[in-house]
Design goal:
The chain has 382 residues and is α/β, with parallel strands linked by helices. It contains 10 helices and 16 strands. It is 23% helix and 28% strand.
């Protein structure tokens, strides 16, 4: 915060520091003209951009494709084909369905090298949801290491509270606009429950209707102008959004969520704009992406290798304290796997970018075209 200068008259000081009297003002004849009134500056609308993509995990095959030594991994090649889909946004979000506790906790399907974050940062990602069923697969220590790796890279996160205290939404100031980010998991894996006695500390935010709506309302009370919710919900490998998920989205929208970006099914699902009347009696619009699909996986089923990145410009008008979502821009993604001189390589590419596709074999280019068609069919607004 800047300091306000005192508007008191400044005395003139002598060389020894003793102030002298200020000179008398010159006396003029006639009335003193009144100063012209100063107009209050108009409050201009503010715009910000939110970008997001789906779920990341890096099991053995993916991890080994990025290995460059005993314990050094470089995932740059993996994400370089995203072609700016996530870059340049004020808030750029993905969901991390793995811990980043490294070799210390033993690598596995849901624990990988924290060097993954360096590649994500390089393509513009600055915020991650950690609220997944795998958050505690390596116990509380594994979550602590993951959170510290994010913090050390100045990357934000939501959905977990390592100290076990629910501090509410992650609050971000974006050009004077207060953005609250909340994330929730539907539950924990068997391994996570066993290691933590069912999360006895309560560090993972679980998607309970009362808790979610309360947290959204509290974020508004705390000064949020825009509320973004990242739910880990739905059923794996099902392209149809369950009725229960639709109902939860309606509750979130009515409670005050402006943007809902879903993950977990590992396949792309539809997008929707929900119009609701909130507690102030006004009608608001909430943009929902029910599932962004996978951003990185070793699965080779066609529905799993097709994901999407989205960009959404939000306009906040401080004069009326309202926010309006703009058009949703969807970029289809494809997770390619092919043999190159260095061995097996995974590449996440913009499925419509010719330059990125040139690095793929003809069969992988054809698969990328199918992924683009799958995303197009799934994302016709409901």
């Amino acid at each position: 915060f800047g300091l306000l200068a005192d508007q008191t008259e400044e005395a003139t000081a002598t060389p020894n520091g003793v102030p002298t009297a200020s000179p008398m003002p010159e006396i003029t004849e006639g009335p003193t003209p009144s100063p012209s009134p100063t107009a209050t500056p108009a409050l201009e609308p503010k715009r910000l951009t939110i970008a997001a993509a789906g779920t990341i995990y890096a099991p053995k095959a993916v991890r080994e494709s990025a290995q460059e030594g005993m314990d050094h991994y470089d995932f740059t090649t993996t994400f370089e084909g995203l072609s700016g889909a996530l870059a340049g946004a004020d808030l750029s979000v993905v969901t991390l369905e793995t811990t980043l506790a490294g070799r210390e906790k033993g690598y596995g399907n849901y624990n990988t090298s924290p060097q993954l974050l360096d590649a994500l940062r390089a393509v513009g990602v600055n915020f991650l949801s950690l609220a997944t069923e795998r958050a505690l697969d390596k116990g509380y220590d594994g979550l602590d290491i993951t959170a510290s790796e994010l913090t050390s890279r100045s990357m934000g996160y939501a959905g977990v509270y390592p100290d076990g205290v629910n501090t509410g939404a992650a609050m971000l100031n974006v050009g004077g606009v207060q953005v609250a980010v909340l994330a929730y998991a539907y539950g924990l894996s068997d391994e996570g429950r066993e290691r933590t006695k069912g999360d006895s500390r309560g560090v993972v935010a679980l998607m309970e209707t009362q808790r979610v709506t309360r947290d959204i309302a509290q974020a508004r009370v705390d000064g949020a102008n825009i509320v973004v919710v990242l739910p880990h919900w739905g059923t794996k490998n099902r392209a149809q959004t369950p009725d229960t998920v639709h109902a939860m989205a309606e509750r979130m929208a009515q409670a005050g969520a402006d943007v809902i970006l879903g993950a977990h099914p590992n396949v792309v699902q539809g997008v929707e704009r929900i119009s609701t009347v909130r507690s102030d009696g006004l009608t608001y619009e909430t943009v929902v992406c029910y599932s962004l699909g996978c951003l990185l996986t070793d699965a080779r089923d066609s529905e799993n290798t097709a994901g999407m990145a989205v960009r959404l410009e939000m306009t906040y008008d401080p004069a009326v304290r309202r926010v309006w979502p703009g058009a949703l821009e969807v970029t289809p993604l494809y997770i390619a796997r092919q043999r190159e001189d260095s061995g097996i390589v995974y590449r996440v590419v913009n499925a419509q970018d010719e330059q990125a596709l040139e690095k793929l074999t003809l069969s992988e280019q054809a698969a990328a075209a199918q992924a683009a068609e799958r995303v197009k069919n799934a994302t016709q607004e409901e």
